[in-house]
Amino acid sequence: MTAVTRHRLFWPVLVLVVLLLGNLIEKPDFFVIRMQDGHLYGSLIDILRFGAPLMLVALGMTLVIATGGIDLSVGSVVSIAGAVACLHISRQSDQNAVSGVLLAVAMALGVALLFGAFNGVMVSRIGIQPIIATLILMVAGRGVAQLIMDGQIITINSAPYKWIGAGWLFTLPAAVLIALTMVAVTALVMRRSALGLLLESVGGNAEASRLVGIRARSLVLLVYAISGLCAGLAGLMISSNVSSADGNNAGLLIELDAILAVVIGGTALTGGRFSIGGTVIGALVIQTLSTTVYTLGVPPETTLIFKAVVVTVVCLLQSPAFRSKVFGRWGPRRTPPASGSPSEPTTNAKVPA
Amino acid sequence: GDGTRDDDGGAAGGDDKIVLGFAQVGAESGWRTANTKSIQDSAKAEGIELQFTDAQQKQENQIKSIRGFIQQKVDVIAFSPVVNTGWDPVLKEAKAAGIPVILTDRAVDSQDTSLYVTFIGSDFIVEGQRAADWLLKEYEGKNEQVNIVELQGSPGAAPAIDRKKGFGDAIAANPNFKIIASQTGEFTRAKGKEVMTAFLQSNPDIDVLYAHNDDMALGAIQAIEEAGKKPGTDIKIISIDGVKDAFQAMVDGKINVVVECNPLLGPQLMDLVKKVVAGETVEKRILTEEGVFTQDQAAAALPNRQY
Amino acid sequence: MPDPQPILQMKGITKEFPGVTALAGVDFRLLPGEVHALMGENGAGKSTLIKVLTGVYQAEAGEVVLAGERVHFSSPLKAQQAGVSTVYQEVNLCPNLSVAENIFIGREPRFLGLVNNYPEMRRRSRELLARVDLDIDVTAPLASYSLAIQQLVAIVRAVAISAKVVILDEPTSSLDAGEVQQLFRVMRRLKEDGVALLFVSHFLEQIYEISDRMTILRNGRLVGEWRTDELSRIELVSKMIGTELSVLEQLEEQPRRDLAALERQEPFLRADQVGKTGLVAPFDLSIHRGEVVGLAGLLGSGRTEVARLIFGADRAETGTITIDGTPLSVRTPSTAIGRNIAFCPENRKTEGLVEDLTVRENIILAMQAARGWLRPVPPRRRDELVARYIEALSIRPANPEALVRNLSGGNQQKVLLARWLITQPKLLILDEPTRGIDVGAKAEIQRLVVSLAEDGMSVLFISAELEEVLRLSHKVGVLRDRRLVAQLANDESLTADRIMQTIASGEDS
Amino acid sequence: MTTTTSPTGVRLAKVFTGRQRYVPILATAGVLLLMWIGGALTYDNFADLQVLLNVFKDNAFLLVLAVGMTFVILSGGIDLSVGSMLALSTMLCAWLITEEGWSPGTVIPLVLVVGAVSGSAMGAIIHFFEVPPFIATLAGMFLARGLCYVISTDSIRISHPFFTETANTMVPLGDYRIDPSVVVSLIVVAVAFVALHYTRFGRNVYAIGGNEQSALLMGLPVGLTKVGVYAVSGLCATGAGVLYTFYTGAGYSNTGIGMELDAIAAVVIGGTLLTGGSGFVLGTVLGVLVFGVIQTIIQFEGLLSWWTRIAVGALLLLFIVLQRVIGARKT
Ligand SMILES: Nc1ncnc2c1ncn2[C@@H]1O[C@H](COP(=O)(O)OP(=O)(O)OP(=O)(O)O)[C@@H](O)[C@H]1O
Ligand SMILES: Nc1ncnc2c1ncn2[C@@H]1O[C@H](COP(=O)(O)OP(=O)(O)OP(=O)(O)O)[C@@H](O)[C@H]1O
Ligand SMILES: [Mg+2]
Ligand SMILES: [Mg+2]
After folding, report:
1. Considering every ligand atom, which ligand is closest to the CA of C440?
2. SS3 state of residue C294
3. Is-contact C263 C288, C-beta < 8 A?
4. pLDDT tens, position by position, C67-115
5. Prediction pTM value
6. CA distances from B254 to A238, B218, B229, B231, B251 (A)
7. Nearest to residue C421, comparing CAs of C451, C443, C399?
8. Interface predicted TM-score of the whole assembly (ipTM), two decimals
9. How, if at all, do strands B292-294 and B146-152 pair?
10. How far apart, in whole angstroms, are the C-alpha atoms of residue C30 and residue C65?
11. Keywords of this protein's UniProt record, alphabetized (chain D) (predicted)?
12. Of residues C18, C88, C365, nearest to A212 (C-beta)
């Protein structure tokens, strides 16, 4: 039993389960998944489907955070990617042509990658604090998206493009499959190659990493580029899901949700250790939270309070200090493992720059 | 951005060209962009020099802009308030500087109506009422329960508050009409679709969808289709604004009725500006010309839609 | 003569960490006006005992009696207020604050609640530092000074408080002989004032010089308490280690090796006029295959800088470095590593370890970085290597999954060594590798250096302990005032005294 | 023993380290000046002192917000709740005064207390339960905004004479006039400066930001200081809210969305390191001015919609890169 509760993902998973069960009380057939037109259909599937873009963005964010950075520009990249793709498709005579759609997707992802790389250069080469470096694109990026579309919402009518966000494959939503594939590939690359270890090292102690010969700059660049790419893919999904691109609203505030997902998943914002599985759980918790709001009919005015309470509860439960201080009375007093060793300074010596 | 960088000192000066300072809310929607375009185009057409600023949906930016206009001594200031309160101090400054102010699109809530010369724009409450009127007419004589779901705009936004109120008050008298779920779709297609999907999962029996704007309705339509129902038939859809896509959806039979909210008030505004500069008295409240469009009118109106 | 009433007494202290019992029912007492040495191998529980005493950790069982009263400190602040002043094992000061502020923070002179007298603080800091013979700019941020200076500042901070009990956890590990004498002078003065001192060190000479009594811990258990003059070194070591091993004998004389034979070959590495303004004046240095070059000098003399410039940790402004006859063009750590150079930095906490990673990950890191992320070390090979070096260096706990953060100081140092040894470098730069390492392990490391050199590895060896440098090196470079003033062959004529003279005069006499 | 250091070494170190601390702030000031000169050469009226005064006036609340944020960031934390706290403050003021008929004399202190208390609550959660600041204050951000909506989604006008009159009061300054809010914000800066540099609390903030564990082991009151830092931030946020209420004479629940990012950016641009322990409150003033000047340039340029955003981003980029280039020269 203790082995289970000790697992770093135990608490987020628990909260996810509790949230889902909460829905069940309000709506007894919440867990029912039925077949409809050859697609699986049900609330759980919806959570996965609408959570897919967040999962992707949070995936990229996890890697960035692992290196001790943060990427605020993901929301803007989401909107730009959608804008680029939809603009290209809308200009085609046959919007259903697969080649045109593929080109549009490639262009959008290329642009997203470029924007990510720009962030990476700002952080790793010019040495600007990540929050500010990415704030620039966060502000300007949405302007660029609107510029691309001349401030209008572009509506397209392209079946192949629509597949990305609203299509189905093997009875499952394509978006979910794409997101899970990305997650699986990334997780595999991180753990099978040494990339994960090197990122954790850079995030854990940048100077020590330099002295063991890790070329942190290119790693950091890579990570921001991946984050851009993930955000771009999420942007395609979001715009494809509604067959239109909205420069102003697509991906608005998704950066906060993504960061939240990463932290709920147990990755510390200070960098170092990261958990991709945790991030997936975190993204699902957040999406389930929205769904719960709809299911329970929480009025829009109190939605945020509801959200605040849930977030606080998750994070408190996750905190060993909280558990030992509040529940400690009932068990033998033990030193919390994660809070351990206050003697060891967690940060490196920081010299005023 | 031209117009501001002129070299003849105080932009307005003795120059005979009228200078209009316009502080726009932002570029948050296609509707708003159409509004901006209309104002720019008609200013150019009328030979009025337009100084335009974009507040990015922030009241403080808009106040800064207005203060800047006062500083630059423009002839007339016009703006679409982000929110209806909080303008007294800066409008007093404008009044003290002798610059007339025209409100567009949204009203301000001030005891001192002398702070602005006129307000031109739609009445969001009336829009909500019109939406309800259509619904009441549609179900006239039938005595069955009508389950309505509502997609609200962003919390705190004036159109969301007023459209909800106008609609809600108008159907309140008839107990057959019941709003079974109401949630914010934040005025966007993506959220509209997401919320509608959840509504469809938890409410098997939806008769009517009332969306505070077209974008949410357009998103919701896709959710309804994915759930295997027919929008416009299985679920009747009422929407507000009247963007081109919504008219297209009406033509396709997916939206039943659109209450127009007209962003193209540029020509009317320029007219007013000229009158105000000329010293003519204008009415305190000018409504924009707006209609209610149903499916049978949609096909005819579609080619003329400009936004 | 009966012992006086102890000022501090700890009874039955038990402290558990997940998976480790760091202390099991340990008793300890400290008498007023004595210097009490706390002895034990790496990981014996010395630092943990100190942390339990001062409220950093809360013990599972046991009690603390201070001046006749039962006390329980919930934080170091409380301990400090009760008159227990501590220098913890790692330098625990704020790198961003100035030296003066580090000494005074928390007890700045105040007027009307405002901290106003900065000049006074600076003046008093300078006075206090002068007591340990340190004359530095007290307004500069602490981070701009070497670890040794930081250590001295920490000591000054601790002794500046008028305390009943002063605890010094390995304060001398980064100090050279001179500083140690300064510190001892300060300690003796405190002792005369009736202050009780608790002192931890792995240097037996220091223990015998300064301490009155000692308590020995082994594996978190109390071995016993002795008067220092009643316990011989051999007995002490065997009590610490738990067997009758004669480690001390192994520590004795290593055979001097033939320098001439080595130097007949081309040097493995040659530095020509390498230097950087403000760090070290341009120097020439050559290191041959199988040669151990020691660097000697006072604290701040520039030994670390020489090492860093060679490794590329700092970018040199002048000069060239040639390895195996080909010059190194770009000098960054990764290019140096690419040419089989390895560098164990002196400050393991900030420059060496990634504390959130496990022992295994820390050990494999350098090898992995050299291979690039696309070619991970195969798990089998990795586990085998890690296990081999945990065993070879006797890292405790011998669990590759343990977080490095939770290792004792000495074991952390061993992890750092293991990291570089598995890369099988041709030149190994060791900056204070034996800092904080117990006698047994120190002998192990010294033996390791000798055998590595015999196998053809070159070693650049920096240590504050002159004896150690002398024992291991073929050649000793002497630094003074950031200048390499002499390179002395380590033959019969070279003695610690001669090196000291060279340091003092700046030339070989 | 011989002395360990050479006199030249000492002198070198002095020049090196002494000035280095001020490099970021000097770089910021320099680039700001450049920008201002650029604006003055490009646009007429730009050089008018009133324009500069307006920058102060229009950003008084942001300045107060950013001062609170400076404390938090110096301690190594972050506070995302300030934008929402500002909105909550305006809503509480407007609601209590207009709808409940309370007097401003009770409402304003009450609102400030609310700010300090909720700040402390977040600080306590952060310190005692070791919840990351980002998350704890994000929850605070949601909660405060949610409370605004619960009070009213509609905006509430304040017609109390105290508010309308204070809003119209001007402090004469030669030929020009400045707002009382500017005076208040500058007083806040001065108090913050003294608190940071001349009180133990302030010094402890720097120490914790430098290394929290060390600060703990040095026997500094880490918990108290951390809670205090968030209390200060909460207090400043509601204080800024009160200023905002004077600025607009109303309360509105959507006020200040995203303002926390402006505040953080202003602090960081002002040379404070996000990792904590290094920075100055005067740098924050410069950071806020940078924001104000960028806004002013945009205003004078009269850009169309999305170009505004692009220009803000571009100017920010220009500024940061210049600041970095100038600042990096020393290191
Ligand atoms: N925070 C912690 N979490 C888990 N284990 C710990 C922690 N701190 C110390 N330990 C373990 O407790 C034991 C005692 O460590 P301690 O630091 O007291 O040793 P030490 O005697 O000071 O050694 P050294 O001479 O190397 O400094 C070690 O096995 C160490 O790994
Ligand atoms: N007198 C001094 N004044 C200012 N800074 C000094 C002085 N002496 C040393 N330092 C600082 O200390 C740092 C360390 O010096 P260095 O590492 O060269 O000494 P070292 O010979 O390696 O000494 P050790 O390793 O014994 O501490 C240098 O980076 C320098 O900034
Ligand atoms: Mg120890
Ligand atoms: Mg050194």
Report:
1. 1
2. strand
3. yes
4. 888 988 988 888 988 889 999 987 788 988 889 989 988 887 777 767 7
5. 0.88
6. 22, 9, 11, 5, 8
7. C451
8. 0.86
9. unpaired
10. 10
11. Cell membrane, Membrane, Sugar transport, Transmembrane, Transmembrane helix, Transport
12. C365
